[in-house]
Amino acid sequence: MLSASWFNQFRVCFVKNGNILLRRPVHLILLLLSSVISVVFAWLAGRDSRGPKGQWPQFNECGQVDAFYYQSISSEYFMQNGTLTAEDSPREIPISLNEAWRSGLPVFLMSLGPLVTGISSFLFIRDELASQRWGYLRSAGLADSAHWLSWLAAFAITGLINSLAGAVTVASLPGIHTFSSVNFGLVFATLWILNLALVSASFFLAALCGTINSTTLTVFVILAMMIASCAPLISTSSKSRPHDPGDSNNIYDGGTAGIGGIFWLYGSTEKSYNSYGAWFYDEETGESKFMEEDDLQQCQVPIVSDDQDFFPMDATERGMISKENFFQGCFILSGASSYFSRSATSLLFWFFMPESHFFMAWGNIVGYTSLPNNVFSVSQVGKSPEVLAKESMANFRGVSVDELYSPRNTNGTSLFEQGSTIVLDNRDIPYSYYHEDPRSNCPSGNLSDLCNDYSKHCRSPTSDYPSSDSPSVFDCFGFLATLVAIYTVLAAYVAQVLPMRNGAAIKMYSPLLPRYWKNESIDIDTAQGEDEEEGRGLIRVQAVDVEKSYGQVKALKPFSFDLRVGEITALLGHNGAGKTTFANILSCEQNTTGGDILVFGHSIVDQPHRVRKMMGLCKQDDYLWPTLNVREHLEIFGSIRGIFSSEIPETVQKWLESLDLDLVSSVYSSTLSGGMKRRLSVGMSTIGGASVVCLDEPTTGMDPISRRCVWKHIDEIKSDRVILLTTHAMEEADLLSDTVAIMCNGSLAACGSPLELKTQHGSAIQFQLTIKKENVMNVLGEVKRQFKSCLDWVSIEAGDAGYLSLSYKRVCTEGEDGVPLTLLSNFIGWLESNEAPILEWGFSNRSLEEVFLEVTKTAMSSRDIAFTQKKGCCCWKINTPISAEKEAAGANLAKSSNDSEINSTQQPRANFSDYERKLSSTTQALAIFRVYMLRSFTGRPSLINWILLITFKFLIAVTGFWMAILWPNEGIYPILTLPILLLTASLLAIVSPIYSDRHSGAFKMMELQGMSCNSFILGFSMYSIVVQLSFCFTALSLFYATPLFRDAETPTCDASIDSNCGLASFGSKPYVSPYNQILVFSGDDVQVFAHMGSEGYWMILIIILTYSMTFPGAALSSYFLPGHRLALMIVALTVILASVTPIIHYASTFFDYNFIHDCIQNMDEAYRCPQMDISQDDFFGGFVDCMGLRVSSASGIICTPPYVSMLPQVGLFNTLALSLSSRIVFYSEPPNYVEDVLIPSLEHASCSGNSCRWSVAMELYWKNIGFMILGAALLVIWGLLATRIFIFPSGFILLARNAINRRYANKRNSNECDSPTFISDDELPEVEAERKKVISMIAQDVKDASYQIERSNYRKCDRESYPLVLMHKIRKVFPPLGGAPSKVALESFDVHVESGEVLGLLGKNGAGKTTVLRILAGNEYASSGIGLVSGFNVETEQEQLYHHLGYCQQFDCIWKDQSVKRHLEFFAKLKGIVNPNDAAKEIATAVGLGAPDVYNRDGGKLSGGMRRRLSIAVSLLGSPGVLLL
């Protein structure tokens, strides 16, 4: 069979991916329509602002608002008091047509659509990698490149539709200049290429996560993607400040580049006389003089000309610059494009963030269209921002670009000659100047808005700018396309180098080898060489000294082994013997530690890609796509292995019929029963003519009919194939295998045909006896009496159910060792006599199971597992309800970890009823708290949590240092957004284990084992508040330890001498510079200054406690969403929105100048500040409060109403800001004046040392704390309601929910399934008798003669009158799902089980066995009928019945990162066992998990059989009254 071509593999994977996307409606809607929503948000945020009169402003020839237009607008709105109304402020006059876009917020909102696509693609790829389905595809020979490119192609198509829908929305939305001025194709192109870049980046992130099954990791990757999308917005918005159109030459303080925001800012040197005067050097008189008013009417404020950039000047030289050397005219401040690409380091940093290129592209578009007469079309795509800025102004003026440089006057040109975009950089100027190292050429004089002689923050052109090569839109497209290629290649590389159980890892340098890139087709018929004959029995697979070690544990010890064509080799061994490890190595799923395996001459070490093309692997677990049907699974694997498209339908149909899956061929795999899934997995491994097939326990969970169907299928396809079968079913190995190999402790213990092994090992003959339970001991005594002379040669297995097995190791004649023939003859005679209380008996020869036990006994003994200690089968008596538990019999389980023989004389019994139970909510809550703490913060998986939390704390501390440098600028408060986001993000770490447990079924398992709603709420609340309190305490304590909260240094330097005067450095205390000190008053020989300070650590402690109190409610309100990763994405988005809400609210308040003005004015009047007349000896009562209003930089927070703090993040923002402004620190010249005179005179204030408490801030602080507590209470109330309604519904809520589900299901069901079917006339007598017995038990509670019962109408006061289990007229109809029609799973099912009875449910896969158990356990609701467990209604009283129930589900729900010990101790505590540790150890020993190395082993490292035993042990804890297995 030839392997499939690369294109065919790509085609098959592309179709698979398309089907997966089409069948996930929520994700599909997001993938197709997210850009529509994001564009609408951008439209809302970027709508035109046309000024007070609703029209566009008038612009002057420099592209700025005309001064005469501004004055005319302002004069119309002056009131009698000379102020403007809030709604008519001239500040609303926009300075460009696209001013609403300057901060970048609309562009950011547009990028959210592609971001949602990127997150969705991450979740899809993460799911395929984490579930190891990708590794299953690799094992079939799928090329890695075909896999990744097929996903990229699928998301490219969804992204294309998404972007097209977004572009159509842009074209359809009215009333916004930006959207109407850009080409439709450019909108589509920018959205689509960003989609592709984010999708490829998500591939890389998913590959890095691999199979690490950590919900926390998934959540924080999503959070990181969201934060990365915000980074360009934060950077550009920090460079954009609100513009006052009245200041036509506004040059903003701060910022080294990107001063204009996302796009450039047109500027003019024109100034009004009222704003500035300027000193200049008069050449005629040789003196520096101030410009007269008549010179300043149209004066040009100086900007240093190009000539002056060649050498620096000292202060004297700069003061002698003449007016003629000053640049006069128009200039342009740079936008985001120059900021992102201004240096190699900056470009490298921003290059790998796709959103930064999207911002640059849209910055060019918005900047070009910011002036009238400009439409951005395809012809502008390749032009840099510098060219676009000049061209935009030229189009506005109606002239050519060259004409822009025509002289307007003798003092300069109309456009700055050096270039279009100028970066006016902040320079820290040392005192000494060197001509060799230019620093600044700023002129001196009263030009503080341009160059400040005190701080020496002079804006002058840098050496790299003006620039003419900032990225164009076309360049941005190129960057994004490059990122698509880079991230996709990196994803494919990482997934192969670090596959994490998705196949064997390749060497890091393998892609550099030529053979890696060869995709040769493998013809199996010729792969061995021409001189080798074809035929059955030839060796095609040779294992040579194969070994595998995991650290110090040797899973495989060196051994050699051959497999032959046309034969089935069965690999037997105990759990953990190494069977699966060897199968995984053979199929290139794992690398060897030593040795090699040659598969048709190809080495698995050197040529794994070729071996995979010949391999078919059926793993121990099923790796199926939930939304693909059976036929599609087979088509995928058949096509990958090279079946031609024309042959696929016929081959797939043949496989469906062979595996008895033809009737469910169109059914999604998620709706199949466990046995059907196994058959499908077998078919996926055998279809396509794979030359080597590895079947790892293929018939696990199958009924006898399905098992024989699979056996027949394997026998049919074994011709010309090498088949390796691992199994625990000895009958299966005996029937199918040509060769049997038995492994023990990683070594090959025996090998040969079944007949050969039986000849060498095992017993001669064995008898099976069936007797009544009460006669078991009598028969055992008789057997011992008859064979007392040779009892050593007899092995006896007995059980309480009435089963007895006798094995005779050797039959002999008189005088030899063994069982004499005469005794055997006498025993048979006794069996046939009427004296023997035997119901049935039979005998057989030696079995393969005996061989297995004999071969492995010695080796297993060396592992300290007592095979010589005989073991009984797992038989126990079902106990009565809890009220009578102490009278019930305990379990009879052995202490061995392997299935061996029983000696009736030695039966250690674990009586679990001996352990007292005291069930209480407190005990359960403590157990829940402890298990979540252990899972989150102990063991290797917790490293992710530790790394993230430590990183968060570090970033919060760095934020404190950063804010200290900027103190006391009002711009420090927006920086608090970062600590708030990091502190809130811990919510994701808290709720992610709950979502993980709900997804895996572990949460339901906890509920089934008796976890109550109140216990969970209490335990989970304790967990959330402890985690958040500890994190918040350490993080905010570190934040307080930074210099930000230390008293500021007062100026001790002279700015005229020391050029660094007033400059704070990293790690130093905040510094009071000449520019941020506030002069309180100046008197005779005294000057008093003031600044803000912090009250103390106690304020931070209260914030820590209050904010931590909000987390139980927040956690309870966040974990009830349905789903897993998508739900966590919603929680992560909510966290971000809640964290940025404070800064959004703060900005909306801070930039509302009239609101702030009115607020401060009202406070001034309240404290009599306007009437304040301060002298050295007169300080009135409101002096401190008035000084606080004067020196505080937190005006936006002071004016914020406290009730907004009900949102905890806003409260945290406000209280942290107020804690920074809670004191007023005074200092004076002379220094002792404050403490000797000022502070003693402030009798009405709370003062100490040189500072006073600011009562305004303290009052607001306590109000905000109060509202935070109120918000925490509201969150708790909502969380409790959500938990009761969605997670732990009971009584009426549960009844109503099930009624809604029933009505919805009935509408979806077909007409044939709507009405119940009546009982057939040919019903078996015993079934009819059972039905009548059930009816007699429930008769007094039935509704009418038709025996339809009201679910809530039964005798609650007399529960013990019912049997432990009772089901009456149970009917279950599954609605159409996954391609399957409506199905009646149960029809009028009646059964009861009394105390002490064991009811066995048999039936083929899909017969309804599991449905019965799920209904009894409350996991499934019945369409009609009633079920009672211990007298409790399974539909409405689930919480009560779970205290009486033990349930071992069909699939194991265990924590992979927790040991057997922790599992059992937790569930023992959950069930209220007084001595949980002893009970856990005893039950572990009883089920064979008590050996120290196993008892302390994590669940993820247990074999399949051990995991099953652990699930059984959990269900047995506490001696439940009803046990469901």
> What percentage of amino acids are in beta strands?
5-15%
End-to-end distance: 45 Å
The radius of gyration computed from the alpha-carbon positions, rounded to a whole number of angstroms, is 41 Å
Share of helical residues:
40-55%
- Main beta sheet: 6 strands, mixed
| Number of DSSP helical runs | 49
Which spans of ≥5 residues are poorly predicted at pLDDT below 50?
Answer: 77-89, 240-259, 271-281, 290-313, 407-466, 523-533, 862-909, 1311-1315, 1344-1355
Number of strands: 39
**Helix vs. strand class:** alpha+beta
Which strand order does the major sheet show?
A: 16-17-18-13-19-20
Overall mean pLDDT score?
Answer: 77
Oligomeric state, counting identical vs distinct chains: single chain
Based on Cα principal axes, name the global outline. Answer: globular
